[in-house]
Amino acid sequence: MKRWIIFACGLSVAAVWRPAAPVDPGLLQNLHMVQQRDTARAIAHQSQGLKLVGENKFAAALDQFRRSAAYDPNLVPTYINMAFCLDKLGRFEEAIAELQTAEKLDPTNVMIFINWGNSLINLKRYQDALEPLQKAVALESTNVLARLNLAAVYSNLNRPKDALTELEKAAEAAPQNPQIFFNWALLLSNTGDTTAALEKYKKVIELDPKNLSAYYNRAALFEKLGQLDNAVTEIQAAIKVFPDNVTLKEILQKLEAVQRMRQQPISMPPPALPPPPP
Question: Which class in CATH covers the domain with range 176-262?
Answer without folding.
Answer: mainly alpha
